[in-house]
Fold this protein.
Amino acid sequence: MEAAIAVTGAFLLVAFSDGLYAPAEECRFLSTLANDPALKMLRTEALQDAYNILMAEIEADYDRAAARILQCIEGVKADDALVKAVTLAARGATVADEKIAPQEELALKRIARALGKPESAL
């Protein structure tokens, strides 16, 4: 479940960072799940479960949920395939609403640090 939370959480961390979570962002995430080969290693059901769990956690306590997400991301940084999936999910959130807000840039930097990468890596 940690891998699914890391990937799904990366998307949600960026998507919620600007304070707005648009339906287009959810559609983009679901489309990415269905179509990107980098996510094929993860069961769709696990990603959907992680999405539902994290949505509830974010709504209850964003800061606590963000800390959990970053911890899970840090936990997968040794797996190149999962790093690619986390990166793809995080980037997918920035294009979902067709603009990158400064808060989204900050979220991408936090994810890069959790992956052990330079802040500019994402």
